[in-house]
Amino acid sequence: MTKVEIDELIKRVAVKAALETEGEPEPGLTSEINWPVNATINRGLEGAISNTTKIGYVNGAKGWLIYRGLNCFDLAEKSSFEETTYLLLYGHLPSRAELQGFNDKLIAYRILPDAVLDVLKAMPKTSHPMSLLATAVSALGSLDDEADDISVTNETEIAIKLTARMASIAGAISRLRRNKEPVNPDPDLTHAANFLYMMTGTKPDEASERIMDASLILHADHGMNASTFTTMVVNSSLSDMYSSVVAGIGSLKGSLHGGANEAALYILEEIGSPENVKPWFEKARAEKRKVMGFGHRVYKAYDPRARILGPIAELVAQKNSESQKLYNIAIALEKEVIEVLGAEKKIFPNVDFYSGLIYNAMSIQTVMFTPIFAVSRIAGWTARALEYLEDNRLFRPRAVYTGPIKAEYTPIQDR
């Protein structure tokens, strides 16, 4: 068969298809723009319902955040990240024996394969930590012979592996950025304490461990946010859990999502002093600039996570004068924003506003703030992907086409 014969074949098929599709568009669509007559477009899928869940509930009007029926205040006060992750994955609080077994798995899985560390060491130190995090998780998937067993049982085990190793990866990235060797986890430390230890090389005091543990709990799950939805969409195609989580990491990296806590701290540093807050805010409003750390797509009340992290930020700000200065700027900015926008637009501080202040006071590099988010949110990502997998259906929404229907092809020599 020659190229001419193939061209003729394609031409005949194209002509036949054109004849068969002549006439009016399908019923229910306007003839000019192919738009469903009753279609309502909600930008960003706002208000769209994609599935049911028993994992978490956010009530934005009342300022509620609930995991499996337990509110975030009780969990932050009484639970641990290990126990909270178990709750999200398995649907109930663990017994002592169940928690011990779960913790034993985390200990066993925390140590990173040498091949993953080699990959991280080969990357430029100037790479964004979230890009490195995605690279390392992808490498873990390549090393796991069971990665393509897309069963709930196997993917649950992968979820536990990733929960353990996300902290180890983030810790290694933090060390390598500062030209220091990664630190192996300590089997006698909790998940939060190990995370701090692997980032800094120093075992944390009880207060720092407690603060990190509470922060991880509060970030563990939060409805159908962008990165959770991204993870679920990829997993619904029956891709492996590693690939699904890599996609979630990519979504979380964005400044409108996980990267907002970095951006919020940069704003406070830009303002410079409490006295500059009012003129800075007036200028930002005039320029229609988004004030990072305020407002939320869901919450029309004060973010419950910020209610907990705000007082913690005040406490840790006392560590040094620079932290105290940033906290004073934050309080002044919060007062200004709420006075102007609180009553009218229901804009209040969100979790990003205070988490960045806390991490900064703990001497954590600003670029590591979003990886900390991932270290926590791996629990919610995997729990929701697993729940959906039990009765899986590929996500396949439609878009409304508004382009031309019968454009003419112009040969390149005539363009």
First-residue to last-residue Cα separation: 31 Å
CATH architecture of the domain at 260-360: Orthogonal Bundle
Shape type: globular
Query: Under CATH, the topology of the domain at 260-360 is which?
Result: Cytochrome p450-Terp, domain 2
The radius of gyration computed from the alpha-carbon positions, rounded to a whole number of angstroms, is 25 Å
Task: List low-confidence stretches.
Answer: none
As laid out across the biggest beta sheet, the strand order is 1-2-3
- Estimate percent helicity: 55-70%
User: What's the CATH class label of the domain at 260-360?
Assistant: Mainly Alpha
Number of strands: 3
